[in-house]
Amino acid sequence: MKTNVGGIDRLLRITLGVILVALAATGTVGIWGWLGLVPLATGLLGWCPPYTLLGINTCKNKNI
């Protein structure tokens, strides 16, 4: 599993994921907010399965 999610992309995913999960935990957005776990996980791991399938790589260091 190679890193294919770069710096800004990771930061945005983690931020969006934390916001959605927090809103879901407080009951503000309902159960759909728990989908924020997906961008949160891909941001923390630095790997996105759809990026791999589509050949997308936003990571600057291609050797990782």
Write structural notes for this entry.
With 64 residues, the protein is mainly α. It has one domain (7-54). 53% of the residues lie in helices and 0% in strands. It contains 3 helices and no strands. It has helices at residues 7-25, 37-45, 49-54. α1 (7-25) runs antiparallel to α2 (37-45). The chain is elongated. It starts with 6 loop residues before the first helix and ends in a 10-residue tail after the last helix. The mean pLDDT is 94.
Q: How would the blueprint of this fold be written?
A:
Elements: H1 7-25, H2 37-45, H3 49-54
Helix pairs in contact: 1-2
Oligomer: single chain
Largest sheet: none
Q: Count the strands?
A: 0
Distance between the termini: 9 Å
Along the chain, the helix and strand elements come as HHH
Strand content: under 5%
Shape: elongated
Q: What ranges have pLDDT less than 50 throughout 5 or more consecutive residues?
A: none
Number of helices: 3
- In total, the number of domains comes to 1
Structural class by secondary-structure content: mainly alpha
Helix coverage percent: 40-55%
User: What integer value in Å does the Rg equal?
Assistant: 13 Å
Summarize model confidence as the mean pLDDT.
94
